[in-house]
């Protein structure tokens, strides 16, 4: 498996969440808002998920990218169960 993780600063991500929420409400949609606490919980969980993926025996690579698609980091499996 190949994992791709989007690297976004927490403050930028929170701003984007608020913007998408406001736009959805403006167009008559139902916005989905994430609280600061909920965002923090998910952000901390993401680090654990990436670590677990990195050690999973079926992981072939872990790639971290920016929103624009620029690759910041790519780790290929160097040993069974460990992207390096």
Question: Would you kindly provide a written description of the structure presented here, covering whatever features stand out?
Answer:
There is one protein chain. 4% of the residues are buried. A four-stranded mixed beta sheet has the order 1-2-3-4. The chain has helices at 10-26, 36-55; strands spanning 2-6, 61-65, 71-79, 82-83. With 84 residues, it is α+β, with helices and mostly antiparallel strands. The mean pLDDT is 86. The radius of gyration is 16 Å and the shape is elongated. A hairpin with a 2-residue loop joins strand 3 (71-79) and strand 4 (82-83). 44% of the residues lie in helices and 25% in strands.
- Taken from the alpha-carbon principal axes, the silhouette is elongated
Question: Helicity level, as a percent range?
Answer: 40-55%
Structural Rg: 16 Å
Mean pLDDT: 86
For the report, how would you describe the main beta sheet? Answer: 4 strands, mixed
Based on helices, strands and strand pairing, what is the structural class?
Answer: alpha+beta
Strand content: 25-35%
Which spans of ≥5 residues are poorly predicted at pLDDT below 50?
none
Order of helices and strands: EHHEEE
Strand order of the largest sheet: 1-2-3-4
How many helices does DSSP assign?
Answer: 2
Number of strands: 4
| Separation of the first and last Cα atoms | 14 Å
